[in-house]
Amino acid sequence: MRVLVYVAFVGLLLDTATTLEETSLREELKQAAIKWEGDIPCQKSDCSCAFRSMGCCCGNQELQSLREHVSESFLNVSDRINQLQHEIRQVIEPVNVAFTAFLGDVNCIGPFDRNMSIPYDVISLNDGFGYNSGLGLFTAPVTGVYYFSVSVYSRMQWAGQHLFHKVQMMKNGEVQVSTWEDNRDDPEDSSHLALLLAMRQGDQVYAELLQERSLCGNIKGLNSFSGFLVYPTPDATKAY
Q1: Containing domain of residue 164, as a range?
Q2: Are 57 and 44 in contact (CB under 8 A)?
Q3: pTM of the model
Q4: Is there a single domain that holds both residue 159 and residue 199?
């Protein structure tokens, strides 16, 4: 009986020593891993190992994801800063856009077989270079609110001539306002159009004479087209 007890006791001591020895060995390995300064071959499958977890290869995927997130955030902030700078420049920097043009030495405009833009060919002012005399139209150089005016004059060329005209102000091909004359009694007629328009950069405005109608007896300065930028506004079509 005493022999069996002795054997059991010795076995317990050996097990305890083995457990303590393994624990001590693991602790030594862990400390050695922490202190290791050399290169460690990349084996992603064992990144949980104390040695491997210290290697750059095991942290590469996480670092790459973090770098992509930081890069994307930086680009978003940069785009927003650029947009804010553009808006600030529109507010604090002077934006000079204004034009005035007249019909020159021409007795009659029209009639035409289709609606035609009126080619005001004498330009006295064109700040911002938005007005094109060859086409008779204004193209907005910046987004904003603009004021436009058109003066219309026509005179009979002989007694009893039919005064018959219609002029309309157009924005991107759509009628905004118009004026017309259709009589035989008044030897001359004049009118004026004016309006404010919200314009995006690239929008176009022009005065149009309707088909089969004419403006005659032009005197320089009586048929004119003018406009100017009242104030710029941020372009809502641009993504932030």
Answers
A1: 95-232
A2: yes
A3: 0.59
A4: yes
